[in-house]
Amino acid sequence: MQANGTVFVYGDNVDTDVIIPARYLNSSDPKHLASHCMEDIDAAFAQKVRPGDIIVGGSNFGCGSSREHAPLAIKSCGVSCVIAKSFARIFYRNSINIGLAILECPQAAENIRQRDEISIDFDSGVITNKTREETYQAEPFPEFIREIINADGLLNSLSKC
Amino acid sequence: MAMTMTQKILADHAGLPEVRAGQLIRAKLDLVLGNDITTPVAINEFEKHGLSGVFNRDKIAIVLDHFTPNKDIKAAEQSKQCREFAKCNGITHFYDVGQMGIEHALLPEQGLVAAGEAVIGADSHTCTYGALGAFSTGVGSTDMAAGMATGECWFKVPSAIRVRLTGQPKKWIGGKDVVLTLIGMIGVDGARYQSLEFTGDGVAALSMDDRFAIANMAIEAGAKNGIFPVDEATIAYMKGRVNREYQVYEADADAPYEKTVEIDLSELRPVVACPHLPSNTKPADEVNDIAIDQVVIGSCTNGRLSDLATAAEIIKGRKVAENVRVIVIPATQHIYREAMRLGYLYTFIEAGCAVSTPTCGPCLGGHMGIMAAGERTVATTNRNFVGRMGDPSSEIYLAGPAVAAASAILGRIASPEEIEQGGN
């Protein structure tokens, strides 16, 4: 499994209220959520993002509420992966459960810059920065989590049991 | 191998003699919770995957508390979807307008959580029930759907930070001051993926309402759960509410902790968390020149009866400041009725506060107190992120009910001592 895209960089503690503000939680329609994704910290994100693009955050990405609408909004924008120094735990498990790829990699989060072009090999955990000709090593997913992501989410993996 | 309190509960629910930090387990659940925002997503997943029914209709709680009484047509459709699912599946613990309260005040009050139980909720503040000595943690809607279908959930066993509380808190110091001080010390990711295990002789000095407020905000330090030992106060709280057997767990004396944080309750001062992180904690009297537009007293953190009692004690016989909107939201119908019987609601209305039916409303920027551009609120809620309660340029100062009430009277951030010293 591979991803290729242009990067949007954000800072530390990107919370679920800025990923998808609660005023839009009166619907869980993916298109509705995607159209407001990141609105309160980057109003133009939903217009700028293209399928396959990648979000890079600092530490504690996705902190705050348990709203699954947050990873859903990101996934529905066509984002192929979120890379961060670290993730808040509910966001982490929600992303895995809905099949949004996420990688913890402090080295990548520190060195990747806005609009860099990168590619990711999920099996090896290698992130290649094509703009800067650098590579970073992320921990590949443990087997248990890889099964859920490969099944495109927890419930698909359950129904295969 | 020695285990923390959390690890012991998880081991028993996974049917294992012992677990260690980092281990992936599947644990049996005693309760699965959802609300009107997260349950519809879970129902969609449940139905999309053709899951046949719920694992136990008595072990699921659905509480319509976030955008209720419904704020708009879309919110009403989401509540309707929850209502129909609950009826179709015979969900015993379904709470609609008129019976519902804010879920994390309601479930303990109704005896739906007991010491030693394992609970997941599709709401991040599900960690509140750690005050009862239960393992409880917030998850997303897909975990809720899987939990409703199977009665189980996967977990990575957390390591733990020990928070040793000592001393007696001074007047006006409540659970919120304790937890905001703690988050200020360790940061918003200071306990990420970990348990916060509270110990020490200071625990006995904290009421159950204080402990609920502290465990409630464990998530604001990134924790998986916060948990208190079970003592006489816990058992007294559960008496008459919990009518089933429960198990009391204790951490092993040599349980492994990543670190220990010491808090002397006697040294605490009333604090506020300034925008835009709950860790941005300052003593209230060091920021008392900040003018405010609104005060919200309520939420799953501080909408309980003792919170309203504290606020009423300060507000009684006074008027709220001109140009400040004060919104008081009792967290459950029971709390609402008791606050009415005890005269607190009369005090609030006499002073010029608006009193609302239970709802999460303003805390997450849903309804019932949304801020315009540049406005400022002192709130007894739990998050002060950008745009949380309205326009992205508005500001939230988090505080306990004493600071919120004093600020309501003086029209600026204020410590309760200022009121006592004749600030009005």
UniProtKB/TrEMBL annotation, chain A:
Function (record text): Catalyzes the isomerization between 2-isopropylmalate and 3-isopropylmalate, via the formation of 2-isopropylmaleate.
Protein source organism: Caproicibacter fermentans
Gene this protein is translated from: dmdB
Subunit structure: Heterodimer of LeuC and LeuD.
Lineage: Bacteria, Bacillati, Bacillota, Clostridia, Eubacteriales
Gene Ontology MF terms in the entry: 3-isopropylmalate dehydratase activity
One Pfam family recorded for the sequence: Aconitase_C
Designated name of the protein: 3-isopropylmalate dehydratase small subunit
Keyword Amino-acid biosynthesis: yes
Family: Belongs to the LeuD family. LeuD type 2 subfamily.
SUPFAM superfamilies: LeuD/IlvD-like (SSF52016)
UniProtKB/TrEMBL annotation, chain B:
Domain of life, per lineage: Bacteria
Residue ranges of every copy of the Aconitase/3-isopropylmalate dehydratase large subunit alpha/beta/alpha domain listed in the record: 8-284
Cofactor: [4Fe-4S] cluster
Pfam families: Aconitase
SUPFAM superfamilies xref list: Aconitase iron-sulfur domain (SSF53732)
Entry GO MF terms: 3-isopropylmalate dehydratase activity; 4 iron, 4 sulfur cluster binding; metal ion binding
A biological process term (GO) from this entry: L-leucine biosynthetic process
Keywords on record: 4Fe-4S, Amino-acid biosynthesis, Branched-chain amino acid biosynthesis, Iron, Iron-sulfur, Leucine biosynthesis, Lyase, Metal-binding
EC number(s) on file: 4.2.1.33
Catalysed transformations (reactions): (2R,3S)-3-isopropylmalate = (2S)-2-isopropylmalate
Job of this protein: Catalyzes the isomerization between 2-isopropylmalate and 3-isopropylmalate, via the formation of 2-isopropylmaleate.
Quaternary structure, from the entry: Heterodimer of LeuC and LeuD.
Family stated for the protein in its record: Belongs to the aconitase/IPM isomerase family. LeuC type 2 subfamily.
Name this protein carries in UniProt: 3-isopropylmalate dehydratase large subunit
Native species: Caproicibacter fermentans
UniProt lineage: Bacteria, Bacillati, Bacillota, Clostridia, Eubacteriales
GN (gene name): dmdA
